[in-house]
Amino acid sequence: MFSFHSIDEILRFAMARENLARRFYLDLSKVVTTPGTQAIFEALAHAELRQQEAIKLELFKIGSTVPSPETEEPDSSPSPEEPFQINNHTRQMSALEALELAMKKQKASFQMFAELMAHTDNPDAGEILFGLAQQEMRHLIDLEKEYRALNPGEGKP
After folding, report:
1. Could you give phi then psi for residue 66, rounded to 5 degrees?
2. Which fold has domain 7-154?
3. 10 Å Cβ neighbour count for 132?
4. Is the dihedral of CA 126, 13, 135, 82 positive or negative?
5. Distance of alpha carbon 126 from alpha carbon 82, whole angstroms
6. How far apart are the C-alpha atoms of 106 and 103, rounded to whole Å?
7. CA 1 – CA 95 distance, rounded (Å)
8. Burial class (CB within 10 angstroms; exposed 0-12, middle 13-18, buried 19+) of 100
């Protein structure tokens, strides 16, 4: 589990996660062969970018500066998640499979932020982590709605 010493560290970690997720979805949108699945991944990447911008705003509110993407150096902190391997199955992924993958990632993010929240003794950090967990859960709920719309007879994924 990760250990943070400040709100700034928590927000930077969350921003790194959002950036990795955005790149993940953009990479997938470039390799899948189904146009509908490409569109889903592009929309997910855009949602991650919006969340990243919201986190930047929170950093500005606490007086922290954020380097521009052009000058930003690679993060040397622990990787917030493992890289995803793209293979032949990934390239042929259906829209439903794409949503299932995205839901799995959102659920893991929610669980991670919820666990971090449960293990902090700083009320301000707990509030930030709670907000991040809520955002991940909202994304998960939106993905589940989209999944059910594409697969109406199956119930909850």
Report:
1. -125, 125
2. Ferritin (1.20.1260)
3. 26
4. negative
5. 25
6. 5
7. 32
8. middle
Q: Which residues contact 132 (CB under 8 A, 6 or more apart)?
A: 10, 14, 113
Tokens matching residue 74: 């690679």
Q: Which residues contact 133 (CB under 8 A, 6 or more apart)?
A: 110, 113, 114, 117
Give the C-alpha separation, 37 to 31, whole Å. 10
DSSP string covering 93-133: --HHHHHHHHHHHHHHHHHHHHHHHHT---HHHHHHHHHHH
Contact assessment for residue 84 and residue 23, using Cβ atoms and an 8 Å cutoff:
no
Place of tokens 């993958």: 101
User: Residue 25's closest CA among 96, 101, 112, 80?
Assistant: 101
- Give just the sign of the alpha carbon dihedral 79, 74, 105, 11: positive
Residue 65 exposure: Cα atoms within 13 Å on the Cβ side: 4
Return per-residue pLDDT of the chain as tens, 157 residues: 577 888 899 899 999 988 988 998 898 888 877 788 788 889 889 989 998 998 898 899 889 987 665 444 444 344 455 555 667 777 777 888 888 888 998 899 899 899 988 988 888 888 988 998 998 999 899 889 888 888 887 665 6
Report domain extents, the chain: 7-154
